[in-house]
Amino acid sequence: MLLIVGTTPETDFPLIEGEACLEGAGLTVAGRGIPVNRGTAALLAAAAATLAHYSQPPPSACLAHDTGMGGGSRLLYEHLAHVLPNRKAGVLCFHYLQPDVDWHNRVLFAIQGMDPRPLLIADAGYMYVAKMSGQAGEYDLFTPDAGELAFLADETAPHPFYTRGFILHENTKVPDLILRAYAHRNASRYLLIKGKTDYLADSRGILAAVAEPLIEALEPIGGTGDTLTGIAAALVTMGLDLEAAALLAARVNRRAGLLAAPTPATQVAEIIACIPQALAALQGPAISKR
Amino acid sequence: MGPPLEIQSGCDLVIEFPIIEKLQVLRTLNTVHLTPLEVVPVSSPLLTPVDLFQVKDFGRYLMVRAANMKLTVDKATRIIVNVSGGGCPDVPYLAQELVGRPLDQAPRPRDLGHTLCGYALELAFAEMERQCS
Predict the structure, then answer these.
(1) Average pLDDT score over residue span A227-241
(2) Interface of B with A in 86-105 (CB under 8 A)
(3) Which of A61, A77, A226, B50 has the smallest set of CB atoms within 10 Å of its CB?
């Protein structure tokens, strides 16, 4: 089972937990409709589309309203710290939460009480706080973009906003940033670095790269990183090993982008709609249920 | 500025002031209903916010990146067509409020945002205004 944790900017939205169902372009969680624009909704929709394509059970979601004040994120942290030790989940995927080191550590402690221990994926704010806590090595997959990789590589930065210029500079090479992130123990077991070329890496360096198809117009589109994380989370939930899931996700995300014929003004929902067709074109290896 | 390692707790911003003025500074903050999480002496260097911008021209569209935030505008209409990047929970909210509006009619990220990602988006917004002027 895949459990996705994140926030939504929708107002009047209490903490909810339930199955995420995608019907056409509409996403519902525990019966509540959620617009699929970007953020956790895009990640959820991409995961749901992927699982539905393989006739797998939908992902579960744990969501709360948060527009940056942190209240919804704290509700989620507290809820997770309480319920996770008694939960079964093959994969936990954490997303847009307000970084809070103390609460992060309480949730991680709760996860350490889960049997069996789930695979841990973190993106966005939760990846930031996982790094800031010094516990990045507890995670199986981070999905940073180039700027966020520079943040992971900067051992002093608590947030990408403070990444030092000599590390953030465009000329700093991805392999160097990867090695630096691992040298300072600020990376997860695997990194899936999204960008002009997507890289899969671990502590040994780059394992594989996916550069085709190259669609320049995807870079400005909000949510394309979220969809990549969602597809990878779904594939690993279905039993693919992490390396295969990450690489297939990168290919599917790019193919879906190509099929959407995007411009920089395209919205991510148009790309999510193309995920089933992209999956059909790029059938992965046989999968077993995690 | 950003805090040194020993007092980092999350999405942090630091105001630096001479410690001898502590009471006056606290009184001033109190008048605008701001309460610091901590007031501490520091000896190690504070972190500096990112000041590098990357600008990418897509022909009809222009993208500006500041730190982890990207803002894209239709050059002809100055309408914000996409907001990308970031990880704090105000990012989807800011994107929802900004996308589809012309630069000069859109709310400022500094007015709606609450986090460092919101701050970075404000920097991208200001740089975009400069680029489009």
Answers:
(1) 97
(2) 86-93, 95-96, 99
(3) A77
